[in-house]
Design a protein that fits this description.
By secondary structure, this protein is an alpha/beta fold. The chain contains seven helices and six strands; from the N terminus they run E-H-H-E-H-E-H-H-H-E-H-E-E. The model has no long low-confidence stretch (mean pLDDT 93).
Length: 185
C-alpha cells in the first residue's frame, strides 16, 4: 500500500501562528494546489475546511475522516500564540517545553500520535496491499505521521517542518509503514 499525505493549503491561522480553528484557506495557496496532480484508489481529508477545499482544488473527492483532524487545543483553540504568550506566559512556556502536556482541555502530542497511528492501522485493514491512497490534512497531522513511522518521540515534533502543500509518501509492507522516497501517488 502507498499513502501520500498532502498538507492542506495555507491559512491565515498557519501564517499567524493561531492554534487550531477552522480558517478558510488562502486563495493563492488553493490556486497553487491546482497545479499538483495525484491519482489514487481512495482519497481522505481531515475535517477542516482548508483540507476539504484543498482536495477539491486537487480535483479529488475525499472521504472526510475525523481521525485526521488537527490537534485539539481546547480553551486555547483559535487563539494566537503571541496573544497566549502575553496573557499566560508560564502556562504556554510549560506546554511548549513539555510535549506530554496538553493545552487546557486539549490533546497532548502523544494523543495526536496515537490517533494517527490508529487511523493508519485501520487504513491497512480496510484496503488491500495494492491500494494507493491520498490524504489531505493539517500540517500537524503530517508531522505526527512522520514521527509515528520513524518511531520518534513526541519531543521530536518541533524538528519536522511541514509547510502548506508539502507532500510525503509512505509505503506499507509486512506490517510496517516506511517513508517512501520517489514519485508520489
Amino acid at each position: 500500500m502507498r499513502l501520500t499525505l498532502v498538507a492542506h493549503a495555507l491559512t491565515p491561522a498557519l501564517r499567524g501562528l493561531v492554534l487550531g480553528g477552522d480558517a478558510e484557506p488562502d486563495p493563492a495557496s488553493v490556486e497553487a494546489a491546482r497545479e499538483l496532480k495525484f491519482a489514487a484508489d481512495v482519497v481522505y481529508a481531515g475535517p477542516e475546511r482548508a483540507a476539504v477545499l484543498t482536495a477539491a482544488a486537487l480535483g479529488l473527492d475525499p472521504v472526510v475522516e475525523p481521525a485526521l483532524r488537527d490537534r485539539e487545543y481546547g480553551e486555547w483553540a483559535a487563539r494566537g500564540l503571541e496573544e497566549l504568550l502575553a496573557s499566560e506566559p508560564s502556562r504556554v512556556a510549560a506546554w511548549l517545553e513539555r510535549p506530554h502536556n496538553a493545552t487546557p482541555g486539549g490533546e497532548t502530542e502523544n494523543d495526536v500520535l496515537t490517533r494517527v497511528a490508529d487511523w493508519l492501522g485501520d487504513l491497512v485493514e480496510r484496503h488491500d496491499e495494492r491500494t494507493s491512497a491520498v490524504a489531505i490534512v493539517h500540517p500537524a497531522v503530517v508531522r505526527a505521521v512522520v514521527l509515528y513511522v520513524v518511531d520518534a518521540p513526541a519531543e521530536s515534533l518541533r524538528h519536522v517542518d511541514v509547510r502548506p502543500l508539502d507532500t510525503i509518501a509512505l509505503s506499507h509492507h509486512s506490517g510496517n509503514w516506511s517513508l517512501a522516497f520517489g514519485p508520489s501517488a
